[in-house]
Specification:
The complex is a heterodimer of chains A (921) and B (110). Chain A is of the alpha+beta class. Chain A has 29 helices and 21 strands. In chain A, β2 and β3 (207-216) form a beta hairpin. In chain A, α16 (430-464) runs antiparallel to α17, α19 packs across α27 and α27 (839-872) runs antiparallel to α28. With 110 residues, chain B is an alpha+beta fold. In chain B, strands 1-3-2 form a 3-stranded antiparallel β-sheet. In chain B, β2 (61-67) and β3 form a beta hairpin. The longest helix of chain B is centred in the last third of the chain and has 29 residues, at 81-109. Chain B starts with a helix and ends with a helix. The chains are: A alpha+beta (921), B alpha+beta (110). The interface between A and B is medium-sized, with 37 and 30 residues.
Chain lengths: 921, 110
Amino acid sequence: MLDWTQYVRQNLRVSGLQVEREAEVVEDLAEQLEDAYADGLQRGLSPSQAEAATKNHIVDWRALANEVERSRVGRETSMTALQNRAEDRSIATHGEFSLCSGVMRDARYAFRMLAKSPGFAAVAILTLALGIGANTAVFSVFNGMLWRPLPAKDPGQLVVLTAKTSGDAFDRSLSYPDLLDYRELKQVFADVTAVTPRPVNLGADGRAERAWTEFVMGNYFSLLGVQMVRGRAFGPEEGLIEGKDPLMILGYKFWQHRFGGDAGVIGHTVEVNQHAFTIIGVAPADFHGTYFFIEPDFYLPVTMLSELEPSDLKGLLKDRNASLFVAMGRLRPGITWQKAKAATGPVNQRLQKLYPDTHASYSLQVYPELKARPQPGAVAEFMPEIVAAFMSLVGLVLIIACANVANLMIAHANGRRKEIATRLALGAKPWHAVRQLLTESVLLSVAGGIAGLALSHWAGLALMSVHIPTDIPLRLFDLRMDYRIFGFAFLIALFTGALAGIFPALRISRTDIVETLNESGRSGGMSARQNRLRSALVIAQVAVSVLLLASAGFFVRSFQKAARTDMGFRVDHLLKLSVDLGLQGYTADRGQQFYEQVQQRVRTLPGVRDATVSAVVPMGYVADETSIFPEGEVSSAKSQAESVLSDSVQPGYFHTLGVQLIEGREFATTDTARSPKVAIVNEAFAQRFWPQQDPLGKTFQTDRKGPAVQIVGLTRTGKYNFLYEPPFPYVYFPLEQRYSASATLFVYTEGDPLQIAGPVQEVVHQFDAALPLYDVMSMKAHVQNGKPLLFPRLAAVLVGVFGLLGLVLACVGVYSVVAYSVSQRTREIGIRTALGAQRSNVLKLVLKQGMIPALIGASIGVMLAFLLFHGLHSVLYGVHTTDLFTLAIVSALMLAVALVASCIPALRAIRVDPMLALRHE
Amino acid sequence: MFNRELKKGSAEFLVLSLIEMRPRHGYEIGKLIEARSKGRIQFRIGSLYPILCRLEHRNLIAGRWVEKAGERRRRFYRLTPAGRKFLAAQRGIWDEFVMTINHIVRLDHA
């Protein structure tokens, strides 16, 4: 039998057809001839007769070829077929053609259409997921920190109470007696309660450990309206009389991991600082206390506070200067916080009059609970700026993603220009076309939003797993999903979809019908206007991406600078571990003896260079303060003490910690409780009290009637509390002359400090086997992962991730634009090559397409970054407003990525075979 | 049997009518015309194919490759919505034309 396909190919000479169309014609004709041949055989013809009859079907091949050439038909795409079907249904149900007749119909159609281009849909959805996910993750952080109400009854009625005196920059907590005075304002406060967090020593089931508790007033849980999941809360008669009611309510988490969630634990007795307490209840799982950042292990009545404190701290509940309590009030219905604040006037004035020394210009501050996070006053007021900064940075990622998807949509919609023009020609309203395209982009972005939520959830888990080396049960991030997060993700998904879809939709609906239809066979090239729009989108993308990268660069540089900062103490080869003797009921004498013995013994361990005990850890979470009256100023009645940060240290401290002593001497074993009082101060201290003078030999007092303390040494000014702190005065006292019940042992080692941790702990336990040791770690870990560098590091990582996301998205953007333009210009490139263009010329032509917008975008980005610098200057540590190095690096990085993204399609372009390309059209 | 001009003038109309109810492939359309006209109208592939091309070019019909189980894939032609409109209009014109012609021709006879 004759091969009819071969036969048609031999006879039909067409020209000017697309390759695909030509193949289609050949196949169609061959099939028909084959049908005719089979038909002939069926009618009883012999094979040769049937063949002759079939050949007779087409005699004039020339005429047929002419006809076929004249009526060129675009290759049918699966898309148009789908639309034909949709239209047919539309005709069947509505009797007339309409592009779409309902949103659901649009959505169904859009869904089918996207399912037909899985590659396009996947890239668009992934892009949107990254943008939306990053935004949702940042939103979740702030949501948990600032916007999620407490799991209490009517949280809107809760207010936080603090106090301020005229000179204070920061709000201070309340003392217990003051608190009780304000509690009497029954006309505005339904009730007032208070908490104060403390570490305690917990003994249960024969195990001792350090734990964190919140001492709360007896009305704490009833005021909040929090119901216990097991047992009961404190009753109205409990927690009123000092020393009565040794009761304990467990936090849910602590109940789970310490007691295995055993309901039988209610009624059991445990020991707190060697006092017996009875467990009466378990707080619910979603209740984490009201003291921000700390999730207490359990709650104790505040009236037990004095019982548990070391003897020198007894009487805390009667001391008007012990500003320990974070106070909360519940407003009476109908009372606003402003009204409540106004009502505090008489109490303020009474306190000012009664205690002029301590309460001059004293006044109560009232904040709605949601406006008092994470700390009432100045910190909370600064939060909107932080939120705005981070949301704008991550918003930039979303803008890049939007531009990317818009670009993809333009290219995608362009392929459908002809079909849309046909529809418009047949009477569809432009609005319908816009609506259809918008539906597609919104569908994409909703899918992106769902994927983004999943991404942000993973990001949240990663963030929550950040471990901060301290025994305090910190609770920095609360990233549980709630309706706010879902709402946010949904809204930005809609917004993104609309933004990414509106430009392509408007552009395409304005298609010139006649011109488009006259393009007949051509699959639809880009108009110059569309190319400009796409280039503009790439410029915007690259600019924003450079801006993001620059921000990331600044944060990283700032972090590097911070990490290299000389903090004034040794970081390597230093082990630290902390004890709290007060919780074990040590007297000062016994404690001093213990410290001395431990130091002596640890110093003899192999691999140990030196060891010392100090009350305070540099850059730690606890600080001591001392009042300073410089010599000669005590006598004047008007003199005011100045409060200065202080530490009590053993001899050998400065050697062990590597704190540089400029002048004078270290403390010696001869500086005892009975010898003259001495101190070592830093340069800032000397500068503050005796500018331009030698501080050695000068004296000061720590209270009006106290003995004179003589300065025997001078150290360099280091960092004590925060990395970004200005130099401030600091004073060291001998531990022998100024006891501290809680202290930290520092061990200066020859090798890896952690290797010696075991032997050191053994030594300590030789003296007291039951003493809990906490915060056992190297100084390096403390600095790297703790307070000093944690936040610069988190910020650098977070903004760095934004920068990388932006870079990846911008890279995809450049690539898609160049790749699309290459596919559109195959013919042009073919002609150029055929006319003798060198490969390098073609390469240049294509690279220009990507690199010109990239260059323009990068320049704009650098300018924006300069502006941003001025904004971030105050936030970033040690980065100067003209950090040209960072800018140069990020611009180079962006351009290199853009070059690679343009090169891939460019290399494809130079491989274009001119013959094939010309035949293609 | 009918002369060439007559055939050519009505060919498009015939093709559109035959695929109105369901899509058909090229040879099937030719055979149907032959069968329904009881052999009085015949189209060879060489003459029918250009008509299909023209109709498709004018977006009145659309060809689509369909693969049925156990058969070779064939190109089936179907009416587009525009073709449907066009066919309805043609029918009206045709009916009116036939009526008018009949009216004239028969009247003359009578």
